[in-house]
Amino acid sequence: xxxxxxxRGVPAAxxxxxxxxxxxxxxxxxxxILNIAMQAATYxxxxxxxxxxxxxxxxxxxxxxxxxxxxxxxxxxxxxxYGLNFFTALAIAVAIAGVLGLILGLGSLRLGGHYLxxxxxxxxxxxxxxxxxxxxxxxxxxxxxxxxxxxxxxxSFEGGHAYLALCLVAMVxxxxxxxRLKSSRLGRAMQAVRDxxxxxxxxxxxxxxxxxxxxxxxAVFGSLGGGLFSGGFHYISPDQFSFAESxxxxxxxxxGGVQNPFGALIGTGLLVILPxxxxxxxxxxxxxxxxxxxxxxxxxxxxxxxxxxxxxRRRVRAPAQDVAPLPLLAQRGEPGADAVLQxxxxxxxxxxxxxxxxxxxxxxxxxVHALIGPNGSGKSTFINVITGLxxxxxxxxxxxxxxxxxxxxxxxxxxxxxxxxxNIRIFRGMSVLENVMVGAERAGNDVANDPAAAVERALxxxxxxxxxxxxxxxxxxxxxxxxxxxxxxxxxxxxPEMLLLDEPAAGLNMTEKQELGGLLRRLKxxxxxxxxxxxxxxxxxxxxxxxxxxxxxxxxxxxxxxxxLQHPDVIAAYLGEPQRHEAA
Length: 584
Ligand code: ADP
Ligand code: MG
Prior knowledge:
Blueprint: E1 6-7, E2 10-11, H1 12-26, H2 32-56, H3 64-80, H4 86-106, H5 113-133, H6 135-138, E3 151-152, E4 155-156, H7 160-182, H8 185-195, H9 197-202, H10 207-233, H11 243-256, H12 261-277, H13 285-299, H14 303-313, E5 339-350, E6 353-364, E7 368-372, H15 379-386, E8 394-399, E9 402-403, H16 409-414, E10 417-419, H17 432-440, H18 451-465, H19 480-493, E11 498-502, H20 510-525, E12 529-533, H21 537-543, E13 546-551, E14 554-559, H22 561-566, H23 568-575, H24 579-583
Parallel strand pairs: 7-12, 7-13, 10-11, 11-12
Antiparallel strand pairs: 1-2, 3-4, 5-6, 5-8, 8-9, 13-14
Helix pairs in contact: 1-7, 2-3, 2-7, 2-8, 2-10, 2-11, 2-12, 3-4, 3-5, 3-10, 4-10, 7-10, 8-10, 8-17, 11-12, 11-14, 12-14, 17-18, 17-19, 18-19
Residues 379-380, 422 line the site of magnesium ion (MG).
């Protein structure tokens, strides 16, 4: 996984950089074509930044031109008004933009979708207003003139070729960096947040920090592109960094394919060059240009690169390697001795509805504890409150000797609490292996910071659930039953202390249900503590050591299976009130 990419022994990044320099030399040293190339290269850096925030993390940002402008103005004002060295000014500008990006990202804490888009639009508009009206500082609508190009270690970038080469090398570095990010731990965390925020959180990812980080990174790339743009044209003005430009950058990313930085390059290249090519059409050129963009987006919803990647993915092979058995199931303490999970007086009210009403429950170490009850009795709500998706109205949750009642979901996962969902929550844009790696890489897990070991752990977890051969497939192409197993493998890969399974048998056929029974028995054999919700009494009787029954949010029975399943209240709850007397 962490293999360095090489071409005939030479690092691929160096080859790409040399190609970029070579490409720069092919462009005329001044004039129209040089300008187009410079614009494409600097824009591409910003658009590659959008891949991070939008493509990887799934957060809409309509402010990339604002960050581009921050970089551009930072360099312009820093060099022209404050006499700073070009690179010093660039570094300061990038740092400021990065911090503002983080602050903008903070806006994503509670806001999603449309609201987030509006926050970024507002930010963009505010910047335009400041650039235009704070004349004393920004020079106002006249813009800044005479922006110099840099010199580094006696090497002057004043000439067109040298400066374009600098921009292209920066573009290549940004592209490769973002490409590598995709298959890194942080990149996987971002994609997990994009695909399923709840599951990301309960798999140990700090969703908020990940989103904020993606905004910060994206702002850094945006401002880097802008800073280089500034030196490229010697002159900038506020209208170059307007809302319309942010839309253009967004379109570039979507057109090329926002999932991949190479797509961003293609999209940027096309949208910079296309209007120039179409200029001969005079008045109608904007219409033709717009129609071309719409057609491509309608017919290739994943962008041009997405279209190519779709065809390449089929050739991806599963990493063939022998895998050590899953080590998660090391015993932690005497089975049955103490309660791993201890819940007291747990209540969750939704308005007037008491989904949980003063539930006490203790799950002993190394046992399989079944939570059963009719539909709507509060079982899923119980797991959601335990794993931190819902705040309890009242009550206390103790786990492995600590009070976790107030912890956010990712911290509970890191404390050893893993779960699956009644309605499968997997990371649909990712491969089977990547899904499970997210689990293996939860903070605090022994393999979290070692990519090779994390791959091995994930493969071991997949082997354990019988999906070792499907590792390279896109997770959505698996059968429903196998998707459930991926969810279980993801939970197991994080070496949890306790596993919460919400109706794992739902939607499985008979064969799959039997397989699941076998899987549960193997897990139990290894001493993992399990809380399972299920309707299938045959399955529950097979595996459960202890059963708790809920009805209308209240605990109506608790104890050994033989006793609980004979309890008159339980029979009544399952069969309905009229049968109560017959049964009793
Ligand atoms: P079970 O998993 O036992 O079938 P749930 O825990 O899903 O039941 O639901 C218990 C009750 O709480 C149901 O009446 C359900 O409609 C209600 N409920 C669950 N989640 C919510 C929510 N987010 N908002 C409002 N009501 C909810
Ligand atoms: Mg449920």
